[in-house]
Amino acid sequence: MKINRNYLNLKDSYLFATISKKVREYRAAYPERKVISLGIGDVTRPLPKVCVDAMQKASGEMGTMETFHGYGDYEGCDFMRNAIADYYAKKGVTLEDREIFISDGAKSDVGNFLDIFDTDNTVLVPDPVYPVYVDTNTMAGRKVLFLDGNQENNFLPMPDKSIKADIIYLCSPNNPTGSVYTRDQLKAWVDYANEMEAVILFDAAYEAFVRDSSLPTSILQIEGANTCAIEISSLSKTAGFTGTRCGYTVVPAGLVRDGQLLRDLWYRRQSTKYNGTPYIIQRGAEAVFSAEGYNQAMENIDYYMENAKLISKTLDELGIWYVGGENSPYIWLKCPNNLSSWEFFDLLLNRANVVGTPGSGFGKMGEGFFRLTAFGEREDIKIAMESLKALLK
Amino acid sequence: MKINRNYLNLKDSYLFATISKKVREYRAAYPERKVISLGIGDVTRPLPKVCVDAMQKASGEMGTMETFHGYGDYEGCDFMRNAIADYYAKKGVTLEDREIFISDGAKSDVGNFLDIFDTDNTVLVPDPVYPVYVDTNTMAGRKVLFLDGNQENNFLPMPDKSIKADIIYLCSPNNPTGSVYTRDQLKAWVDYANEMEAVILFDAAYEAFVRDSSLPTSILQIEGANTCAIEISSLSKTAGFTGTRCGYTVVPAGLVRDGQLLRDLWYRRQSTKYNGTPYIIQRGAEAVFSAEGYNQAMENIDYYMENAKLISKTLDELGIWYVGGENSPYIWLKCPNNLSSWEFFDLLLNRANVVGTPGSGFGKMGEGFFRLTAFGEREDIKIAMESLKALLK
Fold first, then answer.
1. Which of A131, A39, A15, A19 is nearest to A373 (CA)?
2. Under an 8 A CB cutoff, do B280 and A108 touch?
């Protein structure tokens, strides 16, 4: 019996473990100080009430013979796929029913989608990057190339025709940087992918944070995307579903590679290795897309974005370079005084009692940068910003 | 961009599609006749009330800030893993916390677990077989060997030391045959696997149907299993969770292959490609293992097993050979008069208005056999059995 030895090539990430350890030690040393975390990528506000109501009703249905639901469709319930189709229609994107797959979250689909691709493909990911894009390909033994994000390109790297890539990851609004590609920039990526006969895996998990209506919220809004792009999204950040688990993936019906419809291959994958998203959860997710549900979800996002504004304003006052925070819950800043990411982490924790995430944990281009998140409570954000100002002014 | 061309080697299964088509056509031709299905593998009874209550309460928790749950642990909530540990303790199996992984169902884990194994392993599966075991390995390009189930071995094939295998699938109580390995038989498999340094993937999804206390309900009850076996199970059939989605996988802490702890590799896989089972669903699943929940679940199983008895009794009266039905919801019978599986299907549909599943759909050794299931309503089972008797007497 041989194990998949590609797993041995995975780099262990000590990022969040190291952060936890440092914070634990600091709290033990200074129990009287309040440490505020602007480091987490998890939501803090509760689910919209209509989602709760829908899930309670659906749970009740499971308790009587007449309304009980057994196995559902692998690709999700009709009502939920219709809700997604309607949501995309409002974005100006027409989807066919069979292009939509409901999942238990974007992370599962980001990882599992690779199953339908040969291991002998070259992968292109931006740096800094959400580690899952790299790790899932390392597990399959694929070659991974990096494209540098930096201050010059606002952490929005553009295609380089001298690089031949087969699988391209784009995340916009970006995790960890919070930067957002414009329509023109995404068009350049779509043209590059079509020319290379590559596939773009587009992670739209933060699309609901886009406030600037000139910015795209879906790559499928870009001409030509339906022959090169798969869009993977989630309700985790849109409506607080991080612990409730529901996402969706759109595979355009016209997307053919190597003579095969990717949509059919993905259906084959899901029907063989997945048994559908829980009925109860899909009912809760459907409610997000009702007028009332979406308003409630947007109220939470407005709350986070007000937090983001407080952070941005402070950084402006301090003259610190950053991207993000306008159409994303993430703010990606340059560490002041040319500190390294971990040096700034230590300074912030020890002198301002604020926790953030060292940029170097997201790739080599993240060194010297730092991520703050707008999830959390308003009063905490205010206190943290006052401490930051006192420290750096 | 190259697709995973192993997918092109998958055999399309037209089994259930063909059944649906034939039934649809029959119903259109004879709209006045009531067709009874004993072909489905899905439960029909509702969830235990305590599960519904628990999920309604958990849904409510998601609606307020104080009780909201964001990202959970990849391996499942502590309360749910404790419930599984307690359940195994009652089976005489002591599990450590870190050996238990909560999932969204056995099918996902059966498919995803292969991720940690090299593609250059030889797979051994019994024939007839649950098609997912074969398809998931075909997708990865693994070589699959079959071990014949037949009347002589009661469809419980035993290890053959002349065959070298790395990954072995066992399902007991078996789908599709309903046969159950004894402790001695499982011991022979465990010894064989340890000797070969193979890994057994043990599918225990039907363990709750075992009524004979001398039969094992877990391979981990067998000495030596903790160095060769992974157990994958589910609440789908135990408590009607087919549409609610919760399962669990046990990876013994002492299971090492190729110098690696499989438990650690599986944790790496799950933490990279899975974000945990919904909190609400885990609360419902926890309730199954309360005294009240388990009693309610067992009442449903008793109901199905009473159905199974009616079917067995009829087959006994008709002198038809079969296995299963005593400790399993499945009854696997030899088609009378040496009919082929599909010939018997047609006869049963056209002359008795009863639908079952042709055994040939589960592998070449299934030809000439037929699967009936005990899921369904008592009155329907009675009518179906009367029709069967009238047809075959």
1. A39
2. no
User: Phi, psi (5° rounding) for residue B147?
Assistant: -120, 125
Per residue in B300-309, pLDDT (tens digit) is 999 999 999 9
Question: Which of B63, B118, B272 is facing A49, going by the closest CB pair?
Answer: B63
- Report d(CA A318, CA B350) in Å as an integer: 82
Q: What is the pLDDT of residue A12?
A: 80
The 10s digit of each residue's pLDDT in A202-223 is: 999 999 999 999 999 999 999 9
What does the pLDDT look like over A22-51, one tens digit per residue?
A: 999 999 999 999 999 998 789 999 999 999
- Nearest chain A Cα distance for residue B9, angstroms: 12
What's the pLDDT score for residue A106?
97
- What's the pLDDT tens digit per position in A138-187? 999 999 999 999 999 999 999 999 999 999 999 999 999 999 999 999 99
Q: Using a CB-CB distance cutoff of 8 angstroms, which residues of chain B are in contact with residue A199? A: 1
- Kindly list the structural domains of chain A, giving each domain's residue range(s) and its CATH number in brackets, ordered by start: 7-46+293-392 (3.90.1150.10), 51-290 (3.40.640.10)
**Are B195 and B166 spatial neighbours (Cβ–Cβ below 8 Å)?**
no
CA A319 – CA A336 distance, rounded (Å) = 9
Which chain B residue has the Cα nearest residue A167? Answer: B1
Rounded to a whole number, what is the distance in Å from the CA of A104 to chain B's nearest CA?
8
> Rounded distance, CA A143 to CA A149, Å?
19
Task: Show residues of chain A in contact with B56, CB under 8 Å.
Answer: 55-56, 59-60
Q: What is the radius of gyration, based on Cα positions, of chain A? A: 21
